[in-house]
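Example for tutorial group B:
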């Protein structure tokens, strides 16, 4: 919960300081975190153009406006949509689908799972049962299940969590499903096992003007 509060406080400070501009700390954090997560994936060889940082910002604000009625996004939302835009998000799409259609799918999925806390529990149970040779899936499920507030206490993060689960389930194999969920869920959880590495991004953009810091847990 403390991590979520820090993310939200950084959001409001940045929003007040730069209005509709992307905080420089967020851009640096996005590049550092996502590049680390893309290690050993095909996207690792894809150069950063800067367009994904802007596209992710606009898509995150559009998503927030549709779901929350405002554009005061949190860092987890920005990281999520920059990561998606690294794969392509032309026309405000999420893996080829319009963001409004995906948002409505998320809304329905949350209701089917009994809303935020039940969805988080169900997602973790699903994750723990996946075959993952690295053991990361089970370790992430156990770690994240200790504090469901991280995923469920805030409306915005619960929407993201449902989105992550839907994206992960669309992958063809259990290993890819586990990897996809972990690489997105870390944006909300702050810590995650990515294969054999445990990454900590809780302080990646907590100090204005400082370079991004990615720790190990």
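The residue assignment follows.
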């Amino acid at each position: 919960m403390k991590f979520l509060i820090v993310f939200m406080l950084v959001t409001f400070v940045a929003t007040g300081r730069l209005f509709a501009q992307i905080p420089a700390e967020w851009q640096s954090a996005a590049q550092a975190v996502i590049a680390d997560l893309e290690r050993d994936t095909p996207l690792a060889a894809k150069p950063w153009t800067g367009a994904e940082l802007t596209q992710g910002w606009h898509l995150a604000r559009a998503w927030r406006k549709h779901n929350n009625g405002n554009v005061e996004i949190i860092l987890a939302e920005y990281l999520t949509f920059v990561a998606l835009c690294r794969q392509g998000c032309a026309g405000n799409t999420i893996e080829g689908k319009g963001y409004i259609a995906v948002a409505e799918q998320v809304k329905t999925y949350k209701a089917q799972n009994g809303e935020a806390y039940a969805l988080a529990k169900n997602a973790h149970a699903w994750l723990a049962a996946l075959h993952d040779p690295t053991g990361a899936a089970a370790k992430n499920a156990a770690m994240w299940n200790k504090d469901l507030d991280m995923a469920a206490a805030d409306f915005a993060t619960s929407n993201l969590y449902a989105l992550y689960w839907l994206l992960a389930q669309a992958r063809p194999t259990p290993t890819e499903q586990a990897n996809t969920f972990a690489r997105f869920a870390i944006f909300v959880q702050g810590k995650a096992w990515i294969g054999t590495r445990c990454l900590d991004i809780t302080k990646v953009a907590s100090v204005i003007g400082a370079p991004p810091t990615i720790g190990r847990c």
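The CA atoms of residues 73 and 213 lie 21 Å apart. Compare this with the pattern of hydrophobic and polar residues in the output above.
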